[in-house]
Amino acid sequence: MRYAVLVCGPAGSGKSTFCKSILTHLETQRRQAHLFNLDPAADPASFEYEPSIDIKDLISLEDVMTELGFGPNGGLLHCFEYLLQNMDWLEEEIGEYDSDYLLIDCPGQIELYTHHALLPTIVSRLNQLGMRTCGVYLLESQFMEDRYKYFSGVLSAMSSMVNFEIPWINVMSKMDLVTPTAKDSDEADGARARNGPRGRRDIARYLDPDPHLLLSAAPTGVHSNPKFHALNQAIVHLIEDHPLVSFLPLDLTSTDSIETVLSHIDYTLQYGEDEEPKETSMKEISQIWNRGWKS
Ligand SMILES: Nc1nc2c(ncn2[C@@H]2O[C@H](COP(=O)(O)OP(=O)(O)OP(=O)(O)O)[C@@H](O)[C@H]2O)c(=O)[nH]1
Ligand SMILES: [Mg+2]
């Protein structure tokens, strides 16, 4: 069985850093993992690990823009269309990687996840090639500093999950930057209500989205428009009726935190469950038997 982790999320959410940290962590566990760069605009100098597979070997955004006259966003879509037309290239590239982890570092253009069909089609082709794939969607912790921004992040995670229809994990990245500002408090309204979490219990309301955070956000300027309030009510109902999104916190400065996220990925991918059971030697059987006999 082959395993692929599609690392996606908004620009700057920490996708490439996440791939690097997971690769380092897997290396210390002596597990085989490879990087697949799926960003045709990525700067090669930015990779600490040389990608084993690189879309830029097939097509680069720079070439598409200079040779075909596309802009950056249209050019990106063209690159993925081109990849879809050349899936035999990808099949050949991943041919050698068996029972290993393939970490797919994606670009940060959010529309690729929320409503375009190109990436989901590429993923379903990977599944046809026998890869068990899961999505890891990163949202950076700064989103928690503004409740409106935070809920736009929750909705983008939700629409990505619906768009891809694959096993999915949402991660709140850069948790090392979160410093709860005050003690736990039930105070919901007031001038500070649009600010980030206050206290550890408050953080939990962001990791497992509490839609009432949105209703209790302090309205300012355009936000006091009654239509805006009605829209928020509709979003609250949507999240209450479809509680699809929750976030695993990730603090890359903590090995335990990386380990927890990795174990969720393993579980989601059912990593290792298809391995052949290890044959037990006669010597081991007799040791087990003796232990049982003595106890
Ligand atoms: N403090 C902190 N900074 C981080 C963390 N992860 C990433 N960063 C920083 O955030 C910035 C963006 O990180 P990247 O890993 O390049 O983010 P990305 O999602 O790959 O960005 P794009 O590919 O451009 O969409 C860099 O300056 C990183 O050093 C983290 O866990 N904690
Ligand atoms: Mg990146």
UniProtKB/TrEMBL annotation:
<dbReference type="Pfam" id="PF03029">
    <property type="entry name" value="ATP_bind_1"/>
</dbReference>
<keyword id="KW-0378">Hydrolase</keyword>
<dbReference type="InterPro" id="IPR030228">
    <property type="entry name" value="Gpn3"/>
</dbReference>
<keyword id="KW-0547">Nucleotide-binding</keyword>
<comment type="subunit">
    <text>Heterodimers with GPN1 or GPN2. Binds to RNA polymerase II (RNAPII).</text>
</comment>
<protein>
    <recommendedName>
        <fullName>GPN-loop GTPase 3</fullName>
    </recommendedName>
</protein>
<dbReference type="GO" id="GO:0005525">
    <property type="term" value="F:GTP binding"/>
</dbReference>
<dbReference type="InterPro" id="IPR027417">
    <property type="entry name" value="P-loop_NTPase"/>
</dbReference>
<dbReference type="InterPro" id="IPR004130">
    <property type="entry name" value="Gpn"/>
</dbReference>
<comment type="similarity">
    <text>Belongs to the GPN-loop GTPase family.</text>
</comment>
<keyword id="KW-0342">GTP-binding</keyword>
<dbReference type="GO" id="GO:0003924">
    <property type="term" value="F:GTPase activity"/>
</dbReference>
<feature type="region of interest" description="Disordered">
    <location>
        <begin position="180"/>
        <end position="202"/>
    </location>
</feature>
<comment type="function">
    <text>Small GTPase required for proper nuclear import of RNA polymerase II and III (RNAPII and RNAPIII). May act at an RNAP assembly step prior to nuclear import.</text>
</comment>
<feature type="compositionally biased region" description="Basic and acidic residues">
    <location>
        <begin position="183"/>
        <end position="192"/>
    </location>
</feature>
